[in-house]
Backbone:
């Protein structure tokens, strides 16, 4: 009986560890992306359960890329549009932003390889995301800082509809202004994993 109890506890602990990254990504979506309105279109599909979060459990770029491709195909072939967008997170690989940035070239190649450029688009996030020309400590970088390296697949028609109903070109500047207006303590509280090294 003790052995069985120990096995159950070990399984529960392992499952909890595996689910922790997904909970952390969802917390970031809720507290940062939605509550700060970094993406004003995120709330409706997220509350409706149409945002999928997939986590790569392996410390391998190849495994991360395989999962990204699998999610790309699944989203594109979801004809009922049960899922609006998919975020693929990698807690155990590509901790360096420059390496992640290079990796994105391989991700972008997946669209061409699968001939899906007209239907899907890419967004990317990283704990140490840094825009070209910005310093690592620039608060504007926090618009794309997430708990882990993340590749997001977006439906192109969803993006097109958003452009029709809102001034989407103004969103990045508005987000940067909002984040730059926050104090260091406020940023640290919301983005504890993204403090510049």
Residues:
């Amino acid at each position: 009986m003790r052995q069985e109890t120990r096995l159950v506890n070990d399984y529960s602990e392992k499952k909890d560890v595996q689910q922790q990254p997904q909970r952390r990504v969802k917390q970031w979506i809720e507290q940062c992306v939605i509550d700060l309105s970094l993406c004003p279109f995120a709330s409706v599909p997220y509350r409706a359960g149409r945002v999928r979060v997939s986590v790569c459990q392996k410390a391998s770029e190849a495994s991360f890329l395989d999962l990204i491709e699998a999610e790309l195909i699944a989203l594109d072939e979801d004809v009922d549009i049960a899922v609006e967008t998919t975020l693929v997170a990698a807690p155990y690989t590509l901790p360096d932003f420059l390496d992640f940035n290079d990796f994105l070239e391989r991700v972008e190649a997946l669209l061409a390889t699968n001939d899906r450029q007209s239907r899907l688009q890419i967004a990317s996030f990283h704990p140490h995301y840094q825009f070209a020309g910005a310093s690592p400590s620039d608060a504007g970088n926090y618009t794309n800082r997430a708990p882990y390296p993340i590749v997001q697949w977006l439906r192109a028609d969803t993006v097109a509809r958003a452009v029709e109903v809102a001034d989407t070109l103004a969103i990045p500047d508005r987000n940067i202004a909002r984040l730059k207006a926050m104090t260091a303590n406020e940023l640290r509280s919301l983005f504890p994993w993204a403090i510049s090294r």
Summary: The chain is about 50% helix and 10% strand. The longest strand covers residues 120-125. Residues 12-190 form one domain. The mean pLDDT is 89.
